[in-house]
Amino acid sequence: MAKCEICGKGISHGNKISIARSHVSRRATRTWKPNLRTVRIKVNGETKKMSVCSKCLRSAKVENM
């Protein structure tokens, strides 16, 4: 669901770390989701609605309507 349809960027997993007294005391798992936008773009001459990450929009990998 949370995946860019252009570059394939998806959810990444890691640890949330709380630091107390100059060492790591606890770890908790968390997820980072990509910054997706639903936009209309041209694909082979026809318009489609796709989920695209903001990095692909800024780098002009897609032609926005």
Percent in strands? over 45%
Largest sheet: 2 strands, antiparallel
In order across it, which strands form the biggest sheet?
Answer: 1-2
| Terminal residue distance | 23 Å
Q: How many H/I helical runs?
A: 1
Assign the structural class, choosing from mainly alpha, mainly beta, alpha/beta, alpha+beta, or little secondary structure: mainly beta
| Mean pLDDT figure | 89
Helix content: under 10%
The value of Rg in angstroms is 17 Å
Low-confidence stretches: none
- Number-wise, the strands total 4
Tally of structural domains: 1
- Give, in order, the helices and strands: EEEEH
Shape: rod-shaped
Key structural traits:
65 residues; 54% strand; single chain; two-stranded antiparallel sheet
Descriptive account of the structure:
- The protein has one helix and four strands, in the order ββββα.
- The mean pLDDT is 89.
- It is mainly beta.
- The protein is rod-shaped.
- It has one domain.
- The protein has a two-stranded antiparallel ribbon with strand order 1-2.
- The longest helix is centred in the C-terminal third of the chain and has 5 residues.
Q: Brief description of this entry?
A:
With 65 residues, the protein is mostly beta strands. 8% of the residues lie in helices and 54% in strands. It has one helix and four strands.
